């Protein structure tokens, strides 16, 4: 290791760092001569992943910090001025969640924009990510930045970029922005204006409550049944995030008076004191919600992640037990509900991702709707919807990804956990009026379109060494794809890195299995993980109790997972 060169790079970064805290942090690492730590901090510049930056807070170019955000914003501002002629008229929206350093990073973002002569429409308080996405369209802004790390652990933060169409950025915008960032001067030389200076010039514009009120009106219009329910008991958790007040108001306005918040998690708190991973998908994250629901005998549990762009749902089964629905199950429910109960459209269009269940496609074909599978990430869903509407006149009605992301209609061009919670409650009230439940409705769909069961396994491999291991696993499966997984013959191999399926190249592999199953693997774009997705399709026999068919399907799925993970270990995955 060239420790002399590494020290010189670290000293240069420290001197240019505008934040005294990260300056001191880096000085301490240098004093300890912790070369492994320094090497990781300077292994690379933090790169755009899923429409922006996300990383661990700390000093250095491979961390999230004020220096990185100032240089990133300067690059973004200059790219916008070069490519969007009216950006200095339309401006850019700046929102933030309630994580550690979010306020400072958002203020730095706005300060750089206004110094570049671009108006900054700034949310003065933390807001859900979908509210920022909504504001782009509502204000006709040229772009937006949302400072958030969504559902990541508390040591993370991030920087999400939206384009003027309301969707997250896609190529070539991300490449162009990255090139512009690379040309930016050291962070302490990036021009910026204080809030008072920006306001004096009329460029720093604090957004009024009217924008949030317009968002609430827009998502209330997404409801299909629109009658609410005095009987339905709902438990809601904000998971220590920013969705609490918004969801509570939306559900109240929609006619759901029996909503009980999970008190310990309702207020924003970037420390996330009751959960290690503030992601409803993680083991233990829903324990307090479940306990609250059992105490009040709730029919339904709705959970947002900290920036409220995702939604988890629990509902009672035929035995009265609360069950956590998978993202695919919620996606199938909402997709079918919108296609069958929504306003009849000439060409309704639904979209999901290549790692989500194939069942939405079966439903779309059965109901004569347009359907697409796109790469992982809601940016691809939103942009595909816009593309087909422009070219073919289709009308986008629903999109989802299995990682608990859903959007109904076009109020926002991103996943919206608050809007989705509202529509799930609306659907539950409709089910109640029909004399059934949410899970009863799901059974109706599964009897018609097949019983799809799925699961996901994530392997966390942090740091530069972990990144090398993930690359090696992907390469090993490419070089030697399996012919059989757990007794299921592989009928097709799809390597999306080659641009297969008409999609942009992406580091994803999929193995189609005999009988309709699928195994897909990819590195995460936002976390140091490799992700494996599994799906199995079972056809219930006529008159067969669905729990019996589900038990059989889940046993086959478990065998499939075990067999694949053994193959992954043979290809370099740590045990």
TrEMBL record:
Residues 1-18 have a biased composition (Basic and acidic residues). It comes from Corallococcus interemptor. This is Phospho-sugar mutase. InterPro entries: A-D-PHexomutase_a/b/a-I, A-D-PHexomutase_a/b/a-I/II/III, A-D-PHexomutase_a/b/a-II, A-D-PHexomutase_a/b/a-III, A-D-PHexomutase_C, A-D-PHexomutase_C_sf, A-D-PHexomutase_CS, Alpha-D-phosphohexomutase_SF. Its cofactor is Mg(2+). It comes from the Bacteria. Keywords: Isomerase, Magnesium, Metal-binding, Phosphoprotein. The keyword Transport does not apply. Residues 47-185, 225-317, 327-436 form the Alpha-D-phosphohexomutase alpha/beta/alpha domain. Residues 1-21 are annotated as: Disordered. The keyword Membrane does not apply. Belongs to the phosphohexose mutase family. GO terms for biological process: carbohydrate metabolic process; purine ribonucleoside salvage. GO terms for molecular function: magnesium ion binding; phosphopentomutase activity. Residues 499-538 form the Alpha-D-phosphohexomutase C-terminal domain.
């Amino acid at each position: 290791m060239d420790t002399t060169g590494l020290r010189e790079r670290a000293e240069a970064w420290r001197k240019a760092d505008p934040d005294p805290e990260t300056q001191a942090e880096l000085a301490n690492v240098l004093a300890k001569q912790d070369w492994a730590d320094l090497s990781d901090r300077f292994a690379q510049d933090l790169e755009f992943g899923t429409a922006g930056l996300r990383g661990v807070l700390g000093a250095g170019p491979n961390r999230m910090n004020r220096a990185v955000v100032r240089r990133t914003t300067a690059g973004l501002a200059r790219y916008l001025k070069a490519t969007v002629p009216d950006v200095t008229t339309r401006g850019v929206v700046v929102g933030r969640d309630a994580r550690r350093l979010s306020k400072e990073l958002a203020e730095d973002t706005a300060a750089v924009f206004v110094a570049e002569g671009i108006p900054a429409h700034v949310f003065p308080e933390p807001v859900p990510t979908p509210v920022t996405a909504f504001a782009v369209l509502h204000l006709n802004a040229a772009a937006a930045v949302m400072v958030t790390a969504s559902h990541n652990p508390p040591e993370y933060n991030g920087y999400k970029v939206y384009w003027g169409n309301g969707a997250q950025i896609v190529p070539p915008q991300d490449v162009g922005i990255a090139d512009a960032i690379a040309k930016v001067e050291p962070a302490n030389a990036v021009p910026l204006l204080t809030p008072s200076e920006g306001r004096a010039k009329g460029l720093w514009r604090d957004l009024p409550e009217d924008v949030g009120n317009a968002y609430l009106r827009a998502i209330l219009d997404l409801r299909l049944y629109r009658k609410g329910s005095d009987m339905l008991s709902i438990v809601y958790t904000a998971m220590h995030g920013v969705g609490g007040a918004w969801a509570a108001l939306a559900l109240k306005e929609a006619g759901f008076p029996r909503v009980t918040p999970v008190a310990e998690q309702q207020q924003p708190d970037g420390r996330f004191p009751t959960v290690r991973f503030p992601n409803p998908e993680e083991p233990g994250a829903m324990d307090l919600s479940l306990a609250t629901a059992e105490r009040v005998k709730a029919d339904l549990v709705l959970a947002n992640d900290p920036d409220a762009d995702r939604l988890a749902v629990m509902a009672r089964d035929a035995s009265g037990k609360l069950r956590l629905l998978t993202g695919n199950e919620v996606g199938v429910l909402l997709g079918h509900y919108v296609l069958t109960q929504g306003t009849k459209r000439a060409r309704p269009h639904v979209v999901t991702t290549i790692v989500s269940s194939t069942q939405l496609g079966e439903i779309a074909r059965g109901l004569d709707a347009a359907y697409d599978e796109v790469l992982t990430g809601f940016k691809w869903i939103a942009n595909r919807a816009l593309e087909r509407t422009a070219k073919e006149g289709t009308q986008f009605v629903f999109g989802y990804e299995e990682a608990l992301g859903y959007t109904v209609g076009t109020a926002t061009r991103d996943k919206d956990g608050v809007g989705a919670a509202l529509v799930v409650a609306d659907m539950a009230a409709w089910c109640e009026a029909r004399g059934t439940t949410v899970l009863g409705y799901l059974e109706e769909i599964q009897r018609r379109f097949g019983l799809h069961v799925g699961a996901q396994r994530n392997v966390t491999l942090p740091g530069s060494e972990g990144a090398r291991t993930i690359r090696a696993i992907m390469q090993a499966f490419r070089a030697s794809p399996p012919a059989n997984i757990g007794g299921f013959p592989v009928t097709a191999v799809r390597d999306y890195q080659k641009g297969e399926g008409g999609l942009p190249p992406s580091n994803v592999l999929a193995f189609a299995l005999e009988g309709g199953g699928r195994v897909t693997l990819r590195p995460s774009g936002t976390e140091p993980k490799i992700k494996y997705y599994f799906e199995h399709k079972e056809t219930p026999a006529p008159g067969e109790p669905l729990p019996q068919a589900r038990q059989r399907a889940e046993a086959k799925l478990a065998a499939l997972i075990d067999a694949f993970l053994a193959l992954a270990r043979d290809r370099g995955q740590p045990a």
